[in-house]
Amino acid sequence: MAMILQGSIVGVLLLLLMLLLILLLILLACKPWRFFSSLSSPSRALKVGDLERPLVLDDANAHGQSNESTRSNDLEGACGQNEGLLHSPRMHDLVYKQRLPSASLQLNEGDSVVLNSDTIEDLSVGQTLRFLSLTERLAEVQTHVRQEDQNPNLKSDLKNDLLQNLAPKAIADQRSCLSLEVISGPSCGLRCSVQPTSASRLPLTIGRVSSDLLLKDSEVSGKHAMINWNADKNKWELVDMGSLNGTFLNSQPISHPDSGSRHRGDPVELSSGDIITLGTTSNVHVHVTSKSESQIPFGIGIASDPMAFRRGGKKLAMEDVCYYQWPLPGISQFGVFGICDGHGGVAAAKSASKMLPEKVASILSDSLIRERVLSQCDASDVLRVAFYQTEANMNNYYEGCAATVLLVWADSNENLFAQCANVGDSACFMNVDGKQIKMTEDHRVSSYSERLRLNENGVPLRDGETRLYGLNLARMLGDKFLKQQEPRFSSEPYISEAIHINQESGAFALLASDGFWDVISLKKAAQLVTQAKERYFEGGGNISEKVANFLLSEAKTLRTKDNTSILFLEFDRKFRISCKVDS
Question: Closest Cα partner for 346 from 249, 420, 422, 443?
């Protein structure tokens, strides 16, 4: 028995030795230690953790010399296109310094990202991530470089195509001019302009002490708010800097929710026509134009006020939006001037003020249509189609707006013409050769013409009934839900006759929201304009702006209870403005 037991033990040991030998042979064949050594050695790929520094590594041996040279040169050219935007010494105040989540980064073994070492130390985290996206796109081009032996021009074509795709946005970023004008408060009349490429002037600060826009208002903090250019969004952004009395955009607070913390608020996008309120009395009008915008061949003034405390101290949101574009993009002799008065919120007014100029410009981009307007001196079809297209593209079901658009154009002999279209109760009139010409139609339910239309198309209105489904307007843009309930609501615009403007006769045009017309008649408005022009003629400066502010102050004096916006055009040749940019 002992002999048998010893033999069994020896057999088991031999079997184990054979298994160990087989396992050793498998390990030698597979060489698994190479995986551990690659992890411990410097990686050729960008690690997720590297983004936290930020630092971008590259292994010079990972690629051939030609590929590395091409990648570096391409990136260098791409960076050159954006140099004005990415090297602002003060841009870091508004750059979003977020880390990319690990799930969003997908890199394979052997991938690399190259940065010019001279530019790394000037970049913030947000800017470095922006470069990564550029190099990732550049890396895609490298997969095609090997084909250059078959086609010597391919490499150059690919590089040029990529740079053409990257450059336009950066170039477009540099063509936006921001103009600010204080339209009420102790510093009324103060103006300031800046463009995105003015790196030394960004961000633009607004406050009572050592600020770019200096307001002598005791309710304004020393450093109250600032405005900066967001190159990623191609937008100007406003930030409250922890002010004591708060910053409001179109009567909506943008300060930090914890008012006692004095922390900065979140950035909020600015649009042309916005009203910034600092404290309770200082209002700043925002106007955004193209840097290449040519001089407007007439004077223009804008004044606006939410009249926020006219209803027994109740806060009244600003729902008016004023806007203008001269010239329209790509159409040198046409311009659009308008007011949108929102109800139920400002969203519909903002949408319409953005779409209407775009639709008009799109229609007039057809040379045949443009020539017909110039030859026939009539743009009725252009305005009508623009309103139809705007209404069709608006998605505002529970908000709407009145809209008034004045289209002005010049023929080859520099003769000026104007034609107006409107829905709602924001009105426009022109003074030509001493005669007042009403350019709009009142579309309130109480107006005689609208009552006739409503009674002919449905249940007659009762005597004294001035509202339909709670609205005092019968025509408007938006309000899709109400239009589904009541088909008599309409977006059909009234369109005036085209008016020839004699620039030697002191002609002018006045557009205003209903807050103005509620307290001032057309005849009285004409008298006030004449009075204001006589008062400010000797003072110089932009008389049109002074006239607009004078009219606004009269509406305040008469205690209007609604948002009030005024757009005044003086067609005398001596009045000119342009977007003047300080370098």
Answer: 249
